[in-house]
Each structure stands twice: as structure tokens, then as C-alpha cells.
Design goal:
By secondary structure, the chain is of the alpha/beta class. Helix content is 29%, strand content 22%. It folds into 2 domains: 4-103 and 227-247, NAD(P)-binding Rossmann-like Domain (Rossmann fold, 3-Layer(aba) Sandwich), CATH 3.40.50; 112-223, Glycogen Phosphorylase B (Rossmann fold).
Length: 256
């Protein structure tokens, strides 16, 4: 029996879960692509490639050379460039593209959100008065906060921030989620945090800090999601895996 080839653009918990779900179907050739930004990624259930493709054209060439039957974009909701390249590569190569896009968090009545469009806007939203801010962002997005040295920062990331930020008062935590509400509430309270800066990543793994901020009455500077290409998409691993299972049935070899 021949198999369909699937390339998953990953880097999220859902990408790993999807790879596992498709692997368990037992009839797909799977490869999971990681950007390589995390130094020690978690173990994956399928073969992994690490690094970029060289833009949309490079990804299109990779799809054609590998005879990939379907491309799945399961990257982070804020990986706008990768998602745009995936859509363009699918158009160039003719390989169908499906996206896994977890829904964002919805503002609750007790939430004190200030929604902004970018990290730079989040820096401005902190204001001129010194505050103790918790930054729950990727390492690559911290540099703009050097423009606001009056604040005291608590930075949490999966990998160490290297080189350290050129700021007079910053403390670093390295940790990998999920983070529960109770631990997040303790962290925010004991650190004297006055404002949380976050992306609207969605999902449960990092929602604890948002619930904790709500419980403590803390304001949250929430960076809105970027606009992503309109492609066929699903919100859950279960729904996308079921679609792939139905849309790409087993291929019977001649003579079978």
C-alpha cells in the first residue's frame, strides 16, 4: 500500500499532538519541520527537520522535490511570516495547504486588557511611570523594551535570553509550560508585578497567567494576533486529523 506524504510546519504543542495522531493512523509518511529557535525542543513522535527553507520559493521546491501530498501549517498564531510563506509555497507548488489555528482568548468581564498591535505599542502602553512588568514573550521580541528602562522587568522564556537585555532592572526565568493558575498567581504576587505583557496565544498551556492577572486585578497589555492568510483551517487537533483521515484515504497499489 502506498502512503501519502505530509509535511507539518510545527513548533507548537498542537503540532506535536497532530503528528502523533496522524502517526497512529499508520498510513502517512510524516515529517515535522521546526524553525530551530528553541535550543532543546521536546521530543517529537515523527521524523524532524530543523531550519528554514529559504522563503516561499524554497519551501515550494522542497514540497515538489519530496513529493509532498499535503502541507499543514501548525505554527504559532504569531508566526505570520511562516504562514504567509506556506500559503505562497502551496500556491506555487500546487500542494494543498491546511492550517491548524487555535482560537484566541476571549476577554472576560473582569479582565483589564489594553489591546495593542505590536510589541513596540506594548512598550508604549506601559507608560512613563515606572512599573513592575511581567514579560511573557518570545526571546526574539524583547529588544524593544530596552527603550523603556524606567520599568522593572520579570522575563520568562524557554531558553536563556542571550545576550541579556541592556536594562538596569531585569530578572530572568527559564521555564517551559504549561503553567497553572495557582503557580502563576503566586509568581505574580510574590514578584510584585503590576502589569502583564502577553500575546493572545490562545490554548490552555499559557492561559494561567491571564486567569491569575484577572484574579489579582492586574492590567494586561495584550498584543493582538497578526492577520494570517485565509486557507482551509481547523481549530482542534481532533478535527484536523479527522479531516486528513477522510480527505486522504489509503492508496492501493496496483495488483493489491
Amino acid at each position: 500500500m502506498a502512503v501519502h506524504s505530509i509535511l507539518i510546519l510545527g513548533g507548537t504543542t498542537e503540532a506535536r499532538q497532530l503528528a502523533e495522531a496522524l502517526r497512529d493512523l499508520g498510513r502517512f509518511r510524516l515529517e515535522l519541520s521546526l524553525a530551530g529557535r528553541t535550543k532543546a525542543p521536546v521530543e517529537q513522535p515523527v521524523p524532524v527537520r530543523v531550519g528554514g527553507f529559504g522563503g516561499a520559493e524554497g519551501l515550494a521546491d522542497y514540497l515538489k522535490a519530496g513529493q509532498v501530498d499535503v502541507l499543514i501549517d501548525a505554527t504559532h498564531p504569531y508566526a505570520a511570516r511562516i504562514s504567509a510563506n506556506a500559503a505562497k509555497a502551496a500556491e506555487i507548488s500546487g500542494v494543498p495547504l491546511i492550517a491548524l489555528r487555535r482560537p484566541g482568548w476571549e476577554r472576560q468581564a473582569e479582565d483589564r486588557w489594553t489591546e495593542v498591535e505590536s510589541v513596540e505599542a506594548a512598550v508604549a502602553a506601559l507608560g512613563q511611570k515606572p512599573r513592575r512588568a511581567f514579560l511573557a514573550l518570545g526571546r526574539q521580541e524583547l529588544l524593544p523594551f530596552e527603550a523603556a528602562p524606567q520599568h522593572t522587568y520579570l522575563v520568562r522564556s524557554v531558553d536563556p535570553v542571550e545576550p541579556p537585555l541592556a536594562l538596569p532592572s531585569v530578572r530572568y526565568l527559564t521555564a517551559r509550560g504549561p503553567f497553572n493558575e495557582a503557580d502563576e498567581r503566586t509568581l505574580l504576587a510574590e514578584s510584585g508585578i503590576e502589569v502583564v505583557v502577553s500575546k493572545n496565544s490562545g490554548g490552555a498551556a499559557s492561559y494561567g497567567k491571564i486567569v491569575a492577572a484577572r484574579a489579582l486585578g492586574l492590567p494586561v497589555v495584550m498584543i493582538r494576533r497578526p492577520v494570517l492568510p485565509e486557507v482551509p483551517s481547523f481549530q482542534t487537533v481532533k478535527a484536523l486529523a479527522a479531516h486528513v483521515d477522510q480527505a486522504f484515504p489509503a492508496i492501493q497499489e496496483r495488483g493489491e
